[in-house]
Specification:
Elements: E1 4-8, E2 15-19, E3 23-28, E4 32-38, E5 52-62, E6 74-78, E7 87-90, H1 93-109
Antiparallel strand pairs: 1-2, 3-4, 4-5, 5-6, 6-7
Length: 110
């Protein structure tokens, strides 16, 4: 049986259940958010009680640089963290968001 935690839209309060593991998750509702779930994991990777969830606004830009490759057409970052250089890049908006989520997960493991 899979355990779940409930994420809540910071603007309207609408709730969504997700698996009870740590990491970054996209939350699209009134606006685009990333929910960063942090906590200590059990041996089965489920979170122990006392985990935290931080919501950050997700920003995306269609950069479309004048270069022949398309892998950096879109940029995704968390509001307020663009100066740190923590961002995702991709050929599409979705690719950039996925790259950002993976980058956040990698930072959490390090």
């Amino acid at each position: 049986m899979t355990d779940y935690i409930t994420l809540e839209c910071p603007e309207c309060g609408r709730q969504k259940e997700v698996s009870n593991t740590r990491g970054a998750r996209k939350l699209f509702c009134c606006s685009d958010y990333v929910a960063i779930v942090n906590g200590v994991e059990e041996p089965n990777f489920m979170l122990k009680p006392g985990h935290t969830v931080t919501y950050k606004k997700l920003i995306t830009h269609h950069v479309n640089p004048p270069i022949p490759i398309r892998t950096h057409d879109w940029q995704a970052y968390l509001d307020g963290e663009e100066e740190r250089g923590h961002c995702g890049w991709g050929e599409t908006r979705k690719d950039a968001i996925l790259d950002l989520l993976c980058e956040i997960d990698d930072r959490m493991e390090g």
